[in-house]
Amino acid sequence: MSDITRSQNDFDQARKLLPGGVNSPVRAFKSVGGTPRFFDHASGAYVWDVDNNKYIDYVGSWGPMILGHAHPDVVKGVQETAEHGMSFGAPCELEIDLARLVVDLVPSIDVVRFVNSGSEATMSALRLARGFTGRDKFIKFDGGYHGHADGFLVKAGSGAATFGEPDSAGVPADYAKLTLTAPFNDIEAVQRLFAENKGEIACIIVEPVPGNTGVMLLNDNGFLQQLRDICDTEGTLLVFDEVMCGFRVALGGAQERFDITPDLTCLGKIIGGGLPVGAYGGREEIMRKISPDGPVYQAGTLSGNPLAMRAGLETLSRLREPGFYEALESKTTRLIEGLLDGCKKAGVPAVANQVGAMFTIFFTELDAVTCCSDVSNHCDLDFFGRYFNAMLDEGVYLAPSQYEAAFMSAAHTDEDVENTIAAAGRALARITA
Ligand code: KE4
User: Fold this and answer.
1) 147 CA distance to ligand 1 centroid (A)?
2) How does DSSP assign 39-53, residue by residue?
3) Rounded-to-integer distance, Cα 310 and Cα 307, Å
């Protein structure tokens, strides 16, 4: 058991000042138990806590650190830009540069608007879909997490599911009733919603690679194409929430990987390279409805600030290197193979879901985990907590919730992967002894 005295003292202090001692709930380790580690610094695939314990990091700030932490070119770019001013609240050329790169990389985006988080991106896209269609209702999927805007906190995933609060307090019932929900992969349920709400549904918002109930896989029936087709028939917009899977599962995101064209795309995380950036974009006809071109209002003091734009530019431009995603995916596949092999040797039933360089391991007797109810009803969440903490003691930092994804970075070496597999073997031996 590593010494975590300083993290424990820090957490005591933090809890006096911050709700749960954190600025985002899932960081509090509530579902896995134990003391959250307060990080001191990070570099490449590694993070160090304030007690100087080193971890191989598979959270990567929940996805943004695809190049690894503190990439020298990203840091240099941010330092240079900061010396010329942190934020202007006025247009700057870096916004044009990053916008041009996003338009080039994301197949469905002709026009893009930068904001400061994934939540801002999705809430703005929903308002835009409502403004464009003149309709108020929308469909999301059970366990889908689209940030914390009111309408999305209905059967939400991520931290909301983690704490068993998929429907948040404080969201007016009259507002929440505009949120329609269906099980992921269930096109019949979606068809029923359209039949019951004819002409009233502004959009379907979907994580094309769900990562907020743990990683979920698409079924073999072409679910995304089925959604595309029903949206075309019903005059409803298809919104891909690619905040997590964008630039993660392919350079052009899930829409490139699965060759489906949404009407709007929401982005976050990687696009900012670790600084606060979100974005939403799509067809020119739709995006021109956004103020000041059109009647749908959306604004932000720090949107497009030069610092965040430069961090995004330095990050995204390095994703174009030949073989970048193939290397990321093969390291992830090797890791999962080794982790599952270790579970088998330890007699621990487990399965894993992987899409590209995002993955989740589930401890279950099921042959496959295909939806969020499989996680809640058929996965051993207590065992996951013990595994998480045992891996922490072995120097591996996984996502502190079964309802989350883990992420590989370009900085993880083959040796890191093998060391992680070995660490998992030791962790399992300890918790199954
Ligand atoms: P942010 O507002 O946290 O930048 O993005 C919200 C969001 C929107 N859409 C998807 C698909 C997301 O995964 C997220 C945020 N993801 C979580 C992790 N599951 C962020 C971590 C946290 O909440 O602390």
Assistant:
1) 5
2) EEEEEBTEEEETT--
3) 5
Pocket probe for ligand 1: among 27, 29, 62, the residue whose CB has the most ligand atoms within 8 Å is 62
Every domain of the chain with CATH number 3.40.640.10 lies at 72-316
In DSSP terms, 44 is beta-bridged to: 69
Q: Residue 305: pLDDT above 90?
A: yes
Asked if pLDDT for residue 396 goes beyond 90, the answer is yes
269 flagged as catalytic: yes
> Which of 46, 55, 58, 145 is an active site residue?
145
pTM of the model: 0.98
> Strands across the sheet with 46-49, in order?
39-43, 46-49, 54-57, 396-397
Q: Active-site residue 145, yes or no? A: yes
What are the start and end residues of each CATH 3.90.1150.10 domain in the chain? Answer: 5-70+322-432
With H, G, I as helix, E, B as strand and everything else as coil, classify residue 268. Answer: coil
Atom index in ligand 1 nearest the CA of residue 405 equals 19
Q: At residue 418, does pLDDT exceed 90?
A: yes
* Nearest in space to 237 (alpha carbons), one of 276, 269, 280, 272: 280
Of 403, 117, 136, 157, residue with least CA distance to 266: 117
CATH of 72-316, one of 3.40.50.920, 2.120.10.30, 2.60.120.10, 3.40.640.10: 3.40.640.10
| pLDDT at residue 161, as a whole number | 82
Per-residue model confidence (pLDDT) at position 170: 93
Assign domain 5-70+322-432 to its CATH architecture.
Alpha-Beta Complex (3.90)
Give the pLDDT band of residue 431 (cuts 50, 70, 90). Answer: very high
Half-sphere exposure (Cβ direction) of 117: Cα atoms closer than 13 Å: 9
From 114, 158, 249, the mutation candidate for ligand 1 (largest count of ligand atoms within 8 A of CB) is 158
Ligand 1 atom closest to Cα of residue 404: 19
241 as an active site residue: the answer is yes
Q: What is the mean pLDDT of the chain?
A: 97
Q: What's the gap in Å between 406 CA and the centre of ligand 1?
A: 13
Q: What are phi and psi of 379, to 5 degrees?
A: -110, 145
